[in-house]
Amino acid sequence: MDPEAGIRRNHPKKESWRTVLTLAYQSLGVVYGDLSTSPLYVYKSTFAEDISHSETNEEIFGVLSFVFWTLTLVPLLKYVFIVLRADDNGEGGTFALYSLLCRHARINSLPNCQQADEELSEYKGEGVSLLPRTSFGARLKSSLEKHRFLQRSLLFLALIGTCMVIGDGVLTPAISVFSAVSGLELSMAKQHHKYVEVPAACIILIGLFALQHYGTHRVGFLFAPAVLTWLLCISSIGLYNIIHWNPHVYQALSPYYMFKFLKKTQKEGWMSLGGILLCITGSEAMFADLGHFSQLSIKVAFTFLVYPSLILAYMGQAAYLSMHHEVENDYRIGFYVSVPEKLRWPVLAIAILAAVVGSQAMITGTFSIIKQCSALDCFPRVKVVHTSSKFHGQIYIPEINWILMFLCLAVTIGFRDTKRMGNASGLAVITVMLVTTCLMSLVIVLCWHRNVLLAVAFVLLFGTIEAFYFSATLIKFLEGAWVPVALSFIFLLVMYIWHYGSLKKYEFDIQNKVSINWLLSLSPGLGILRVRGIGLIHTDLVTGIPGVFSHFVTNLPAFHQVLVFLCVKSVPVPHVGPEERFLVGRIGPRESRIYRCIIRYGYRDFHGDDMEFERELVCSITEFIRYDRIEPCSSTAMTAGSKDYGDLKVIGTCSTSTDTIQISENDGASLPSLPKKRVRFMVTEGHLDGDSMAELRELMEAREAGVAYILGHSYVRAKQGSGLVKQLAINAYDFLSRNCRAPTYASSMPHASTIEVGMVCHL
């Protein structure tokens, strides 16, 4: 049921240096591939059109100064020393910040949240305390809880950041691979190299996406060495260029050269900042991929290896260019021109490999964030394939993979140069950073309980820098920057329609649920029969009886001897431990044999297969029967706020039980007349009374008779008299729901045991 539980990385508070260094080494291939390949295109994009390289070197030194301070302030100061601390139980990224804010401000991002969910160990987290009533944070928290507009604005902000990350997942492979193969331009005539670069980049991109289904773990051993080799390569070449061409280039690190640059170039210099911005592309990955590593390992890798290597690389390029002013073509100012001629072919090969690694990390990150959105009802359901049995974060989504490949090829063939690709990538990168800055300012006040002045200072410092770059990229809207805006608009529309439709569907289910008394009144006297077996009625409701069951009984007047109303839901935390997975309770008296079971997953958890699912479900009910009789006042009992008889109790999976009822199974292969699974309960004598043993015996017999899965299939329609916008949204939601994947638990069920009940929902 929870195979990732044993592999989930729970970082100890005190890590050994050996562990830290090992994780830091591994992070090179996963986190820093995109950031480390930025020297391939930063100078080339900056000097593409707006400014030129002159004899005074004021432009090249000014660009170097901007690059140095941008790398120092944004990735190093903002992300390494501040943002990495805002993790959601070890997870990072835009949705992790949003989830963190929702829990601290008590904003229910999911409609079926319960009070019991707030008792989860990861929901509480560390350092959660009440805000002083008179503080600004308390007033801000109260405003967020009261006003739906503010809640929707917060969700909208998180979705914008998420959509831009997806857009970056399209643009990063395109610009990284295209820039890497652009080294071919120095070995052939200008009129020929364009006919080679685009096909070569397209072939590499097709191969990259075609291999995604194998998973990153298949070639993972190559990732870290490739990036490490690349970093050592560019830093060595940079150091050589500094010593050989201009040892005094370090003077350009002074902020004075930035002002000198802007004073001379004015508007053109401001417009060229979009190219300089590309030096920090991939910085968000340090936070987004935090769940695979530890804070300290990411800090060590960036501070002591990645950051100095990038600074040396940019200084080396500037040193070379400061002594070479005969720039006849725009590509003569690129990365490869500063590489010694004898090393260009080996460096080209290393660059292509590093670009593939960086692209792979971005593609995997896109898969991960879409899975998170889907778990929180903000993206249509997609097929999620776990490509590694050891690392739960390595996933593959076929539909998204081919969409990304098509869009990457379209961008590469359509633009055919790094200038417009850089404009597009720059806008996507800076928008994500602006969203992170806004969400972080709320985290400082609501989650860290710091003075509001610190949040204001954070926004003023980093928000001003990012807004400055944002304005420079936005001015290039017609020169490529429209691509991430268009992609984000499409993805945002799909995500918002899905979220809106899901909420309306849940509201319909709430309004049309039937009372528990109606269920308990069903008896043979009314022509209702109880048949052998276990009936699992899947529902999104955590209280009451879903209308789909009423529809089922009306058309087929019978239901099973053991009835389980099953709700599989996601909660706004990264992971739910196996010991807290199930909430189990009764509906009605013991004799009715009707139960409610709620299975909770975090937005990064792995859903097990149907056989494991079925076994764990039966095990959880047996554990509930045991606790219900032995420990009726157990501290593990939690009220779920329903009107059912009795409380819902927290039940762990079989793997977490020690002194519990054990289930042993055999598939009956040696018994031709009985191909079904046999279930046997082993209970320590004296633990249970006669009623409980009879209940367990009946559950055992029902399991042997078979399990039937009853699913509701809804046909969504807009209500009569609805506005045009609502009709379009509901119709779009109906189209998406009919054409997207079924829920994970539904898609893995045996078809022979599944009953679908159709209903028309007027929303």
TrEMBL record:
It is found in: Cell membrane; Membrane. One of its GO terms (molecular function) is potassium ion transmembrane transporter activity. Residues 533-762 form the K+ potassium transporter C-terminal domain. One of its GO terms (cellular component) is plasma membrane. Residues 23-520 form the K+ potassium transporter integral membrane domain. Keywords: Ion transport, Membrane, Potassium, Potassium transport, Transmembrane, Transmembrane helix, Transport. It comes from the Eukaryota. It is a multi-pass membrane protein. The chain crosses the membrane at residues 20-40, 60-81, 154-175, 195-214, 221-243, 269-288, 300-323, 343-363, 395-415, 427-446, 453-475, 481-498. Coiled coil: none annotated. PANTHER family: OSMOTIC STRESS POTASSIUM TRANSPORTER, POTASSIUM TRANSPORTER 6. Belongs to the HAK/KUP transporter (TC 2.A.72.3) family. Potassium transporter. This is Potassium transporter. It comes from Trapa natans.
